[in-house]
Amino acid sequence: MTVTAANPPAAAVSAAANQPTTVGAYLRDLPPDRRVAMARVCSMIRRSARGVRESMRYGLAFYELDGPLFALESGKRHMSLYVAEQDVVVKHKDALPGVDIKRSFIKFSDLNRLPLDVVEKVVRDSVAARRVRATAGTIPTQADLLKLWAIKEEAATPPPPRQTISLKPTLPPPPPPEPILRAKILKSPAPAKPAKVATANNASALAGGKTPIPIYEALAAAKLEWKRVTIVPGDERIVPLNDPLSNVSMLAKFFLPKGARVMPIVPNAAADYKAAGRSADALMQDLHWPLDLCLLGVGSDGHAASIFPGPDFDEAMSGPKTQRALGVMPDPMPADAPVPRVTLSLSAIAAARALLIAVRGDEKRAVIQSAINQGRASPYPIGRVLAETELPVDIHWAP
């Protein structure tokens, strides 16, 4: 997971102009379908091949463990996984599409249906085979693998310095006062060129509260095919729809007049928060998954969406991967809205094709910085969200 802290849109444009030197930056520049597919395989390699070294080389995501072990390439309509241990490819060839045994690579043409269970076996078996080779002193040389994979050695550049998969980037110093940034919801400061919010049958989850209101004002002015857009709240207070605390009512005010589908996720008269959560989860199951976009706010206590400390925290963090929403009872109750909630689960948030965070104020900025530094050990819910998210995350902060 790579975290990018964004300030003026010009900074984002400037950063994009640079050639990617890390896998995270490389992923960030890919189209959404290829970015999601690549990120899932990259994350699996890091999890299943402990100690692997990740870098960008020859325009590929390279993974080394006592020498090159894998390389991952994104084509225009496919993804290729190069495997150093050729016998492992032969072992699993019948369970995988697009296997080229001669060049020892696997070509994936359907990025929406990656056989990740089989790919994980390839990764684990490759690590085991590499350890045997390391003991026997028979690890293939880089030249051997470049030849096997048909990568021209004369086109190769020297390996970069060791790069660590880091969860500890540094947020920039506070910029001059300015509105919350909209760079990821609008392609440019001009609202005439909006980025995709949702495709037909897909949905975006948007945050409640006051912080994102300038974003929604700009987005509502954009020229989108609003009838194809579905919006759900990333979390909801269990209150009547006409209550000022209702997040979906706030979203509806901006986007219903545009023709978007704004979907309530809480029954109007929900007495049991657990039942409300089950109802919301059932509604979410009818949406095409994953979400196109998830925009999160962060509280000064580090909560994200409505994932608060309390009796339901573990379920929100570690519940079934298929669970998309659940009811939660914050403990202690937030003073500004002391009511039970329904929230997206961590797995639902982390699966989104794009994840954005928008916050205001030095206190929340400090919380996010601490959460990034602490990684998976963070006591803040937002720390766990960032640590578990495979795709790059954009953080938009204003004082």
Describe the protein's architecture and organization:
The protein has 399 residues and is of the alpha/beta class. The chain has 2 domains: 23-155, Aspartate Aminotransferase, domain 1 (Alpha-Beta Complex); 203-398, Rossmann fold. The chain is 32% helix and 17% strand. The protein contains 13 helices and 16 strands. The protein has helices at 9-17, 23-28, 32-48, 86-91, 116-136, 142-148, 213-220, 247-255, 273-285, 313-318, 346-350, 362-374, 381-388, and strands spanning 3-6, 53-57, 60-64, 68-74, 79-83, 99-100, 105-108, 203-206, 230-233, 235-237, 261-262, 293-296, 325-328, 341-344, 355-360, 393-398. A 7-stranded parallel beta sheet has the order 1-16-15-12-8-9-11. It has a 6-stranded antiparallel beta sheet with strand order 2-3-4-5-7-6. Strands 10-14-13 form a 3-stranded antiparallel beta sheet. It is elongated and about 70 Å long. Residues 1-18 and 153-200 have low confidence and may be disordered.
